[in-house]
Amino acid sequence: MGVLQLSDPNTTDENATIGFLQDFVEKAGGCAVIDGGFATQLELHGASIKDPLWSALCLINNPHLISKVHLEYLEAGADIIVTSSYQATLPGFISRGLSQQQGEKLLEKSVKLATDARDLFWESLKNIANHTYNRALVAASVGSYGAYLADGSEYNGFYGDDVDLNKLKDFHRRRLQVLVESGPDLLAFETIPNKLETQAIVELLEEEDVRIPSWICFSTIDGVNAPSGESFADCIQVVNTSRRVAAVGINCAPPQFVHSLVQNFKKLTAKVIVVYPNSGETWDGVAKRWLPSKCFSDDKFNVLATRWRDAGAGLIGGCCRTTPSTIRDLSKVLKKSSVASNGTKDMV
């Protein structure tokens, strides 16, 4: 119901950098809402994204649709919107015939589209009394190396023997620099499948002296381990060494896995727990199609989300195949339950 008064995310104090996200969650009533599936909405609006660039293709062909989707999630009550840069990589753009400079401009554009949508939406509320929104944060999405490969390896963690720590840092470095310089509030490292890439991210944040709060989200196919088969205990141990990573969690995994994972992660780290699962359908990264499986309705998703919050999740949203409808219902139920438990309206 106003601008949250938070610590500066660009402070030189690393503890305050982490505190920025913790403050946001606390002042949101104990749980903040992330937006939902992006590609799902782009396709609904007529975008064709059957391409290795996936939703990043719209940065070239349909940027107005990206803005439209951001606004839909803001209207639905998202407290954090994630940029369209998940599959936007410099090697990916260059492979399409673009120059390095053009690719960097598109990365900048992904952040600008999100921040402009946020600011436009916030401006539209200035004459509306007693609205329940706060000014949202923008998280710049950084997809895994496997997302760039577009071969499904973000869901198995097998990058090949020629991929080592330095290669992963080199892959992420310039994209990270450009995104940070573009001015997002947060960095969202998504669908990380193994310990090696986790280590690369943690070291890179240190080497580049990144002062923007980050989260690292893993994927999982069994609900117990990272896709590589490595334990989450081993992966999170790496995350815990970094004062630049403010949150850790799970994205693009079936909802039925999330509750036990939140409980497990709470035992493994003191960082904010972030979860944004998919709708329950299964993506075949090789065949590039959704496999038939049980899809969770918004009602069931919302019931589960309150359990995730009660188990300790501080940031909750949706990933693939979730929609603004999902986020609208999610926002309502989490805000309502926050008021009931806190007796206040000090929330987003």
The CATH class, by name, is Alpha Beta
Mean pLDDT: 89
Report the sheet with the most strands, covering strand number, pairing sense and barrel closure.
8 strands, parallel
CATH topology: TIM Barrel
What's the domain count?
1
Uncertain segments: 1-7, 339-348
What structural class do helix, strand and pairing data support?
alpha/beta
List the secondary-structure elements in sequence, H or E: HEHHHEHHEHHEHEHEHEEEHEH
- How many beta-strand runs? 10
Please, how many helices? 13
What percentage of amino acids are in beta strands? 5-15%
Describe the strand arrangement of the main beta sheet, using strand numbers: 1-10-7-6-5-4-3-2
Supply the CATH architecture. Alpha-Beta Barrel
Provide a descriptive summary of the structure in words.
This protein has one domain (14-342): Homocysteine-binding-like domain (TIM Barrel, Alpha-Beta Barrel). It has 13 helices and ten strands. The protein has helices spanning 14-27, 39-44, 57-61, 63-76, 90-95, 100-124, 145-149, 165-181, 195-207, 232-240, 258-268, 298-311, 324-342; strands at residues 32-33, 80-82, 137-143, 186-192, 214-218, 245-251, 272-276, 282-284, 289-291, 313-316. β8 (282-284) and β9 form a beta hairpin. The N and C termini lie close together (6 Å). The relative contact order is 0.15. InterPro entries: HCY_dom, HCY_dom_sf, Hcy_S-methyltransferase. Its cofactor is Zn(2+). This is Hcy-binding domain-containing protein. It comes from Deinandra increscens subsp. villosa.
